[in-house]
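Lecture 7 notes: from sequence to structure.

We start with a single chain of 292 residues. Read the sequence below before looking at the structure.
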Amino acid sequence: MRILFAGDEQPYSAYALKEVTRLAMNTWAEVTIMGVITGPVSHGQETPWPLEHPLHQVLHGYREDFLKGWQGEDSPYAFKNWRYEWLPVKSGLWEETLVCRSAMKDLKVRLRFGNAAQEILGESKEEEADLIVLGCTKGGQCQWLGGQAVPQTVVNEADCSVLLVKEDQPITGILACLDQSYISQDSLEMINQMATIHGVSLELIGLSQEGAMKKDVYRRLIEIGDYYEDRDIKVTTRLTEISEFEAVVAQELRQQLLALWLGKKSLLDRFFPRDWVGRFVSNYQASVLVMR
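Now the structure, written as tokens:
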């Protein structure tokens, strides 16, 4: 699993990093921590990125906080493979040097320049990320510093799954909405990880249209319920008309993680306009996991 964490200098990003650490501890994922400088930058020949920019220190702090989360654990990100090797210094001269080749799992920290949302999306494609994690202000704002609609753009346009962590908002349960028969094993496992990490129950909602639900989708709903019960996760199931979906969510949910499957055959993706999910997660009060 490859996780891309995108953060800025605000508290909501530090809170989202905690979710990344929990996921990494359960999955031993390859992790990239990144930030984007959006203001004017003076490019020098030796220092293409301004080390005096506050984001530089913030990203360094995120790396340290991530690694500290493994205290008392065997971290797959620690550099332990130290050994002496002969390395060429110049033509005809070699030097024996103590080097550390690699950790078991990659932990990268990257800094990019440009439009924040587009740089995050670009990094996710280049790294072939399975999951993008980012935080935002809570409530109906769902923004980054300066009022940027970064979360909405990333959720709308990402090719991979996105976990949007609302600022300092605990998860008390998971509501997963199913409207298609094909659900990848990776997305099933992602919900399993979130339920295990937070020790919460799962409610599966099957979405129907005009009172009907395809037999294969209903069959899959039952199979998925059994899948999670076999993993000691408490599960309940029910059906909801898709036209009433937004009202149901707005009325009933408070601190539940909302999980949406939005694949190519998704009824939600066909029923609502392309930018619907970005606007929807902005108004939702708790964290949202969009799976693709």
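The mean pLDDT is 83. Keep this in mind for problem set 3.
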